[in-house]
Amino acid sequence: MKIKMQQNEENTRDRKLFLSLLVLSVMILGIIVSGIWYLNLTNFNHISRIILLVVGIIITLFSLIVVLGIVGILIILRKNEPVSFFYGPIRIVISYLFPLVIYLGKILGFDRLEIKNSFIRVNNQLVKPNRLEVAPENILMLLPHCIQQVDCEYRITNDLDNCRRCGRCPVDDILQLRDKYGIKVAVATGGTLARRIIKEVQPRAIIAVACERDLTSGIQDTYPLPVIGVVNIRPEGPCINTLVEIEKLEKAINKLL
Questions:
Q1: Which residues are within 8 A (CB) of 202 and not within 5 positions of it... i.e. 6 or more apart?
Q2: What is the C-alpha to C-alpha distance for residues 53 and 31, in angstroms, rounded to an integer?
Q3: Residue 202 has what DSSP assignment?
Q4: What's the CA gap between 219 and 204, in Å, rounded?
Q5: Is residue 93 a contact partner of residue 22, using CB atoms and an 8 Å limit?
Q6: Smaller CB count within 10 Å for the chain: N or C?
């Protein structure tokens, strides 16, 4: 019980970084909107005033949608269940405000990977499968090609069952999870192939293993399709002989089931 409480506290602390930067981004948007409307009230010529008015209306509407999206994120995290009404605004927040969040975090001295990790944790908390009724065959686990040992002659990119299950890499353990739960597993060599696999399989939920960069871009591309992101381990650096915590994968499967 004590360990679980500590984990919850860590998750809350990690989520707060992204959420705090998100709120700060909205405050900056609010300042910009206020400045534009203030300029609209000054003695600009007619054409300039029309341009400022149009820009002011667009940015104001965008800001209101962003605020609604952030409220939606907080409500879903609080209620612990999905609210479809907020899917649209949340997508706007995830797709268009995330670059500003990264930029602000960089200015304030936060590490880019730390911010992306925080975003992934927030996203994973937004996945509320209690109303999805996801069957095992509707769950797709996407793996990066670097999960396999680089010198292995039995390539699994096109067929996972080429694996000889020697235990040198995590693929054997992942295949055991596949066989145990009946989920679908595929390897994607990049974002384009991942999107094609998703289009062909048409899953109702995804468990994605990748680095922070690929996970954040993948989550942005596929929202509101539920994606649980699991950051890989890179003992030899990025894109070579990466690892993954099998316990986290099994926990993600059980959450969706």
A1: none
A2: 16
A3: -
A4: 14
A5: yes
A6: N
Beta bridge partners of 209: 230
Q: Report the sign of the C-alpha dihedral through residues 203, 253, 225, 210, in that order.
A: negative
pLDDT, one tens digit per residue, over 38-74 is: 777 676 666 666 777 787 788 888 888 888 888 888 8
How long, in residues, is the chain?
257
What CA–CA distance (Å, rounded) separates 172 from 164? 8
Residue in this structure with the two tokens 């999206």, named with its chain if needed: 69
Q: What is the pTM of this model?
A: 0.79
Q: Record the tokens describing residue 101, joined without a space.
A: 């969040």
Spatial CA neighbour of 143 closest among 179, 182, 193, 94: 193
Would you give the DSSP letter of residue 160? G
Reading across the β-sheet that carries 205-210, which strands appear in turn? 184-188, 139-144, 205-210, 227-231
Alpha carbon separation from 12 to 41, 108, 227, 235, 243 (Å, rounded): 43, 20, 19, 27, 25
Give φ, ψ of 233 to 5 degrees.
-105, 135
